[in-house]
Design brief:
The protein has 109 residues and is an all-alpha fold. The protein has a domain of 61 residues.
Length: 109
């Protein structure tokens, strides 16, 4: 009798640890569900990666436009400097010409 009870206990424990037997249709449904879950997780990862890429692109674009603005300001400053220097040279040239001309002094009456 102890042997029979031991066999029953062993059989009961074995059935609890065994995986339930699934039909082919149930296996297909489970595989389909697993596939959908995997696809959703991959889509979410792809969306997150695309979002991070867009954020990095925007950051680089802003840094680039800041450098463009800086270069533009330097170019404007250089143009203004060149214009001032040109005017200064023109004024010096006019002053030299004026100094070189003879002036007639009017005779007093």
């Amino acid at each position: 009798m102890f042997i029979a009870m031991g066999a029953v206990v062993t059989f009961a424990q074995a059935s609890e640890t065994e995986k339930p037997h699934l039909t082919l249709e149930q296996k297909a449904d489970k595989a389909r569900l697993d596939s959908q879950q995997l696809e959703q997780s991959q889509l979410e990862k792809a969306r997150q990666a695309a979002s991070e890429t867009a954020a990095r692109e925007e950051k680089i674009k802003q840094q680039s436009s800041a450098r463009d603005w800086e270069a533009q300001q330097k170019r404007k400053a250089q143009e203004q400097f060149d214009e001032r220097e040109s005017r200064e040279q023109q004024y010096l040239q006019q002053a030299k010409e004026a100094a070189a001309t003879e002036r007639k002094i009017p005779t007093p009456l």
